[in-house]
Amino acid sequence: MSSSFAPFSHLSQEVVDQIIDSLLDTRESEPEISHFYACALVCRSFRHRSQKHIFHLTRVFHTSSATSCKDRVDSFHAILKDNPRIASYVRRLRLNMSSASEWMVDDPVFLQIMKLITRILPVGMQFELSIFGGWAKFQFMSNRTFETCFVKPFVTPFITSLDLENVFNIPVSLFAHCPHLVELKLINVTVEAVRPPHAIDIDHSLRPRPLEFEFRYCGDTIQILAETYVDFSHLQHLSVYGHYISSELDNINRILAASSRSLERLEFAFGTLRAPKYHSNISLSLLEFPNRRIGGQTF
User: Fold this and answer.
1) 89 and 18, same structural domain?
2) Looking at the 3D structure of the chain, how many domains does it have?
3) Same structural domain for residues 113 and 199?
4) Within a domain: residue 120?
5) Most buried in the list 114, 122, 202, 204, measured by CB within 10 Å?
6) DSSP string of the chain?
7) pLDDT-based confidence at 279, cuts 50/70/90?
């Protein structure tokens, strides 16, 4: 097919861009983009704008296979090498990690991708990191490598959403140095009990101030984060889930105390109110927020 498509040759590039933009359904949080692939192949004047939509949301490690993850990284790196400008099209970067993708924290090809994307950061870029440990007690083989090669240069300066599930012995620097963090979700997560001598120094001026926080089955982790590493004074939405409300009550009250001036919505669901005395404690805590929305359920 010819690189120029006659019916559109008389249109300005601005008009062509508007035509391409009109294909995007902005009502969806993650719009369908398959038709942009076809547009990019129709003619050269369609390509630039179509690529902007294609790479607006970029997912890496969206598979459970280590081989598939590596293939995806290599393919994306080849695309960026062929057209470095594509790195500037990424407005929402989503990294879904698991034990199958642990190799990436010091992989030179992946780190080069991160360098290209973060070198030119657009205002309002969303960077979402999810780490799912599965049913095994997953932890990184080397927290210092994880910190120095990946977290410090490419995660904490930019991340807006952090989601950890079934991950253990996480270095606290992953939480402590995220000034742009908006959403934090922790399910069955522990942090390093003692700061190792070679761990990254903590700069408390970079403490995150999340607006949304969800946790379950985290034990002492919440206390450690709330007391030292995370500022919950701007929190607007708190969600707590678990089997027994008695096991999470201290953490709930701790977060409520920190967010008393900002909290707008509280959601919780538990299997059992273990003892009657906890009814009064919960009521007293919630009465401090007379104008807030409270959603709760016990089973």
Assistant:
1) no
2) 2
3) yes
4) yes
5) 114
6) --SS-GGGTTS-HHHHHHHHHTT--TTSSS---HHHHHHHHH-HHHHHHHHHHHTTEEEES-SS-HHHHHHHHHHHHHHHHH-GGGGGG-SEEEEEE-GGGGGGGG-HHHHHHHHHHHHSPPTT-EEEEEEE-TTS-B--S-HHHIIIIIIIIIITTT-SEEEEEEEEEE-THHHHT-TT--EEEEEEEEE-SS--TTSPPP-GGG----SEEEEES-THHHHHIIIII---TT--EEEEEEEEHHHHHHHHHHHHHHTTTT--EEEEEEEE--STHHHHHHHHHHHT-TTSEEEEEE-
7) very low
Average pLDDT, the chain: 83
| Domain containing residue 205 | 56-231
pLDDT confidence of 292, banded at 50, 70, 90?
Answer: low
